[in-house]
Write a structure and sequence with these properties.
Layout (H helix, E strand, L loop, with lengths): L1 H43 L2 E6 L5 H21 L6 H10 L1 H14 L6 E10 L2 E3 L2 E3 L2 E10 L6 E7 L14 H10 L2 H7 L3 H20 L4
Parallel strand pairs: 1-5
Antiparallel strand pairs: 1-6, 2-5, 3-4
Length: about 220
């Protein structure tokens, strides 16, 4: 009898542990699926700027920032009255040659002779924090500027909603930019990217890992 009772008890404990693990797995999968769906909507609402340096030398990295500032200043001028992502993309497409010329002239003015490739496309981005706003990883429409061999480190910002301020590490997103972002995202999407920093970064890191698995063919 004791043996049977013990087996029954062990069986109940095992069943309880299994059900608990399944519940935890279900909650985790549901949370990730929800976050991933919201992330996809955010990606559809944002237009980014991607600048790649010629190399990782200090000179080329410094040049990258100078080119960045010149391009951002010009884009801010021509898209100042734009109120949607599509408008900014259209304006950028219509001024690609001017953007390229500004980048080339900036490079020349600083004593270099690198070529520049400017394009608009859909590119992969990691999770990125802009002041008190955190954007999820994923594929975003972006204006890409490749300097020279484009073998150096990247620099990213957001052209729409306008988050391209110089110090993205310690800066605070302007209220006007937040207002534009609120108008272009749902309430839950905005709450997600402007929520508690650590919690948001953990969620986005999980999404990023899963996306890498998907890209690698581990998940079909």
């Amino acid at each position: 009898m004791k043996f049977i009772a013990k087996n029954l008890l062990n069986s109940k404990i095992k069943r309880f542990i299994l059900l608990t693990l399944l519940l935890i797995l279900y909650i985790l999968v549901s949370a990730i699926s929800y976050t991933n769906a919201v992330c996809s909507d955010i990606q559809e609402s944002v237009f980014r700027l991607h600048v790649i340096a010629n190399s990782d030398s200090s000179e080329d990295q410094n040049l990258k920032y100078i080119v960045r500032d010149s391009v951002i200043e010009y884009i801010n001028e021509i898209s100042n009255n734009a109120s949607s992502k599509d408008e900014v993309i259209l304006i950028a497409q219509e001024h690609l040659s001017e953007i390229e010329n500004i980048a080339l002239q900036t490079i020349k003015d600083n004593g270099y002779n690198y070529p520049v490739k400017v394009s608009i496309g859909n590119f992969a981005f990691p999770s990125k924090k802009y002041g008190d706003i955190t954007l999820p990883p994923g594929y975003y429409d972006a204006l890409k500027i490749e300097i020279g061999e484009a073998a150096g480190q990247n620099w990213w910002c957001v052209m729409f909603p306008p988050l391209c301020f110089v110090d993205v590490t310690s800066g605070v997103v302007p209220d006007e930019s937040k207002e534009v972002m609120k108008n272009n995202l749902s309430e839950e999407e905005y709450d997600l990217i402007s929520g508690n920093g650590t919690d948001v970064e953990i969620k986005f890191k999980i999404v990023e890992v899963l996306q890498n698995f998907t890209i690698s063919g581990i998940f079909v």
